[in-house]
Each structure stands twice: as C-alpha cells, then as structure tokens.
Specification:
By secondary structure, the protein is an alpha+beta fold. It has two domains: 12-216, BirA Bifunctional Protein, domain 2 (2-Layer Sandwich), CATH 3.30.930.10; 221-269, SH3 type barrels, CATH 2.30.30.100. The chain is 26% helix and 30% strand. The chain is built from six helices and twelve strands. It has helices spanning 12-18, 37-46, 94-113, 175-179, 185-206, 212-217, and strands at 28-34, 54-60, 78-85, 118-120, 124-127, 130-142, 146-156, 225-229, 235-242, 248-252, 256-260, 264-269. The strands form two sheets. It has a seven-stranded mixed β-sheet with strand order 1-2-3-7-6-5-4, sandwiched between helices. Strand 6 and strand 7 (146-156) form a beta hairpin. Helix 3 crosses helix 5 (185-206). The protein is globular and about 55 Å long.
C-alpha cells in the first residue's frame, strides 16, 4: 500500500472484459492523469464520440464540482469518471437527469457495500451527513452532433482520514473509513457503469416517474430545516419532497410550500 492509501490499480484489459454494460463504457478511455474527466469527455464529444463514452482516470489535477467548487481527486484511491449522454431533452430536464445520476451512484454503493446512503439534493451522496460522492452534469450544444450532457462522478473510495485536507475533515468521508476496510475500485467501477446504464434507460422511458420512490426513500434531511444557497431564489425551510421534475419541495414560514429548481442546500438544524 502506498502512502496515499492506494491498495489497487486498474487492470484496464481485465476491466473491459468484466464490464456487462451494452452501451456505457463502449468506448472507455483510461488515462493515468487528467485535468478533469468532464473536460476530456467534452473534447471527445466534439469529435463525435457516441453516447455511452466514458473517461476514467487515476487522478484529476483540476477536478471540479458544481458552482465552481473544486473536487479533491488524489491518485489511486478514488473513482473519477465521466459519462457522455446524448438524450433528446431540453436544458430544463437537466435537474432530473442529475438526480437520476445521483440515484444510480447511491444504488451502486449500497449494493456493493451494504452501506446506507442518502441523496443530498441535487447531486451529493452522503453517509451520516458526510459527503462520499458527488455528481457534476454539464450540458453543451454541438453544432453538428446536437446537445449532449456530460455527467461526472467522483467517489471517495479508499481515502483515510489523514488524506483529506483540513477543510474537508469534518464534511467528507470515504467507503473505506465507513466500512473499516479497503474497497476494491475495479468491481465498484464496473458496478457503477452497469447501474447507471440501467437507471438511465429507465429515465429515458419514463423520466423520474418509476424511480422516484427509490429516490425519495434516500432523500437527506427530510422534515429538517435547510437553507437554499442560490442568488436567484434564496430560501429556507423544511425539506418535504422531490417532485417528478427534479425540483425540491420546501415548506417555508412566509411563502408556504415552494419548489426549488436550482442552488445547493445547507442543513440548518434537526427538527
């Protein structure tokens, strides 16, 4: 085991043989280091890459999250990957696609580790209120190829507590920390690809309708007070539900129940 906690390296030839997906990760591009897997997939999209194209890397030097936040992506201990989707949907359907991806990640982790997972609207995966994974979905319109969505996924797999920088010590965790033992990344990545492909297929058939009960059952902070950090629609209130359009339903003191379509949420207090 190296000093950064790495226990396994990807065997890409074997990984390709192990994949049971029919479209996702066909093709799969692997690099030892990338600035960002989302950026790499966007380049591939402009060159006409098909839906299901996936980029995977050991390390991101400029990994990013929503709203300009950085994503800590050290080598050898996490899953840093991005998926190219070409759904025939408008930009207003991006929020439910983000929630769809979050559900796929949550389902993958739960089935692979038996760890209970919560989804923090709209794109974070939590274990006991600490972030273990995140999703970044970006929509681009190509002149020839039409619109595409790049969905980036980062999962903290084998981080130990000393690996996280000081600013993440209280807010982040990893599968290894929670389980108390290392988790092999290669089978987890294969499971992620297969699960996301299946969930995405359901999404294309019926939107969030059929998977919404599963998403709701994992909704973080239901019935608790949160603050919406959004310059257009700031709000605070009690988390009530997720609607079929992907918006978050909040019960506020001054405006009744409102639907929140953008922003991030911060937990205020237990109720």
């Amino acid at each position: 085991m190296s000093g950064n906690g790495s226990i396994d390296s990807y065997d890409i030839s074997q990984l390709r043989r192990d994949l049971r997906s029919t479209r996702f990760a066909h093709p799969l591009e692997y690099r030892d280091r990338l600035t960002s897997t989302n950026d790499r997939v966007l380049v591939m999209a402009r060159r006409g890459a098909p839906e299901g194209t996936v980029a995977l890397t050991e390390e991101q030097t400029s990994g990013r999250g929503r709203r300009g936040h950085t994503w800590f992506s050290p080598p050898g201990i996490g899953i840093w990957t991005s998926f190219l989707l070409r759904p025939r949907i408008s930009g207003r359907h991006l929020p439910p696609l983000t929630i769809c991806a979050a559900y796929a990640v949550a389902k993958c982790i739960e089935e692979s580790t038996d760890i209970d997972i919560c989804i923090k609207w709209p794109n974070d995966i939590l274990i006991q209120d600490q972030k273990v994974a995140g999703i970044l979905a970006e929509t681009k319109t190509m002149l020839k190829e039409g619109p595409c969505v790049v969905v980036g996924v980062g999962i903290n797999v084998n981080h130990t507590t000393d690996v996280f920088p000081d600013e993440l010590q209280e807010t982040a965790t990893s599968l290894r920390i929670v389980k108390g033992e290392p988790v092999f990344r290669q089978p987890l990545f294969c499971k992620l690809v297969e699960t996301f492909e299946s969930v995405y297929h359901e999404y294309l058939q019926s939107g969030l309708r059929d998977i919404l009960p599963e998403i709701k059952s994992r909704l973080a902070w239901r019935g608790q007070l949160v603050e919406v950090n959004d310059p257009v629609q700031p709000a605070s209130g009690r988390v009530v539900d997720i609607k079929e359009d992907g918006s978050l339903l909040l019960e506020t003191q001054d405006r009744g129940c409102i639907a929140v379509h953008s922003g991030t949420i911060t937990h205020i207090a237990d109720v």
